């Protein structure tokens, strides 16, 4: 991590004039473009909250947005902040009487939907573009990699949700967790053995995921909007800065594909520094002027990276202030356990 930080600092120093020029280009954005980008930023936050709300409908959209933004602030703003983000999301959901199994179903289902949309987007975009021209090596690589990832993920989850052998394996591994933190997942029977609790928890999670898998269209469409809004933000920013026909939709699809890959593999929080450099380089390779490419990426990252941290931090401070002025919502309430898959996800 320290080495990456030093490399990024060196890159900023070496490219300081380019960064200054890019910021100057941002100042030339028209008022109409700024308004559109602001509205897209709002849509980005609401659409991500709607994914959570669809899986946990007892939560209000406001609480879902709080969970989304606070988690995003932790994961994007703190090194290795993923576990912290999950804990904060869980605490916010638990205050509204969401059981642990339902929360896990939400995490898994939203994560799987995000993976399918993220890898399906460049696959579909590339295939559509290839229909009107001869495919090159980059096209074939994108299609092959995306198809392999999607096919492998579909096969994995089919086995996990259908295979009794996989069920027994997960149950056996869950006993270790249950033995140490039995109360984390909600109300438990003190007289039940660790094995019984593990079976119950795994069954509830599997039933909830099966129910989502039977009706995946709504979740996938919501996730498509949430993920696609980021692509639209980058596209509008580049067009507003004057990028024209030198960036074709097929090249843009590849660039955004690079953004997703870098975001998932980068060792820095939220891919900071790595995404900016990688996506800017991909845009320049596609024919976009360096200053315009960097300016577009900076606008895109401000809306999708900086703003979630700011909003999530504000939500967190407000939440902590509310908690310090009175008893936590739902204190003393008995949390109802999930009895079946139909009871877990609506």
What would you say this structure looks like, in words?
With 346 residues, the chain is mainly α. The chain has one domain. It contains 14 helices and no strands. It is globular, with a radius of gyration of 22 Å. The relative contact order is 0.15. The C terminus is likely disordered.
Can you count the beta strands?
0
Estimate the global geometry from the Cα principal axes. globular
Q: Helical stretch count?
A: 14
Radius of gyration over C-alpha positions, nearest whole angstrom: 22 Å
Q: H/E series, N to C?
A: HHHHHHHHHHHHHH
Q: What is the subunit organization of this protein?
A: single chain
> Kindly state the mean pLDDT as a whole number?
81
Summarize the structure.
This protein is mostly helical. 77% of the residues lie in helices and 0% in strands.
Please tag this protein with its features:
346 residues, 14 helices, globular
Q: What layout of secondary structure does this protein have?
A:
Elements lengths: L1 H13 L1 H11 L4 H25 L5 H17 L4 H13 L5 H31 L6 H26 L1 H17 L13 H21 L2 H24 L8 H17 L8 H12 L4 H35 L16 H4 L2
Helix pairs in contact: 2-13, 3-4, 3-10, 4-5, 4-13, 6-7, 6-9, 6-10, 6-11, 8-9, 10-13, 11-12, 12-13
């Amino acid at each position: 991590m320290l080495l990456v930080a030093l490399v990024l600092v060196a890159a900023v120093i070496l490219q300081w004039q380019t960064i200054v020029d890019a910021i100057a280009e941002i100042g030339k954005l028209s008022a109409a473009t700024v308004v559109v980008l602001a509205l897209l930023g709002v849509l980005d936050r609401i659409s991500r909250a709607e994914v959570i709300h669809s899986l946990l409908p007892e939560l209000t959209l406001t609480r879902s947005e709080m969970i989304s933004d606070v988690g995003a602030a932790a994961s994007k703003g703190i090194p290795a902040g993923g576990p912290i983000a999950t804990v904060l999301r869980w605490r916010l959901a638990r205050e509204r009487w969401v059981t642990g199994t339902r929360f896990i179903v939400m995490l898994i289902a939203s994560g799987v939907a995000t993976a399918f949309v993220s890898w399906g987007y460049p696959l579909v975009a590339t295939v559509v573009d290839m229909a009107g021209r001869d495919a090159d090596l980059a096209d074939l690589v994108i299609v092959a990699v995306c198809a392999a990832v999607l096919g492998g993920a579909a096969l994995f989850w089919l086995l996990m949700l259908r295979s009794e052998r996989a069920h027994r394996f997960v149950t056996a591994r869950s006993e270790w967790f249950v033995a140490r933190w039995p109360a984390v997942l909600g109300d438990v029977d003190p007289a039940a053995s660790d094995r019984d609790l593990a079976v119950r928890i795994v069954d509830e999670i599997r039933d909830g995921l099966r129910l989502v898998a039977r009706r995946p269209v709504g979740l996938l469409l919501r996730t498509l909007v949430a993920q696609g809004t980021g692509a639209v933000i980058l596209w509008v920013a580049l067009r507003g800065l004057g990028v024209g026909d030198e960036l074709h939709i097929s090249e843009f699809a590849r660039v955004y594909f690079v953004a997703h890959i870098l975001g998932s593999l980068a060792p820095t929080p939220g891919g900071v520094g790595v995404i900016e450099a990688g996506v800017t380089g991909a845009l320049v390779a596609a024919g976009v002027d360096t200053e315009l490419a960097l300016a577009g990426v900076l606008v895109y990252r401000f809306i999708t990276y900086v703003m979630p941290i700011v909003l999530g931090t504000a939500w967190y401070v407000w939440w902590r202030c509310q908690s310090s002025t009175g008893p936590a919502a739902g204190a003393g309430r008995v949390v109802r356990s999930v009895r079946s898959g139909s009871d877990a996800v609506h």
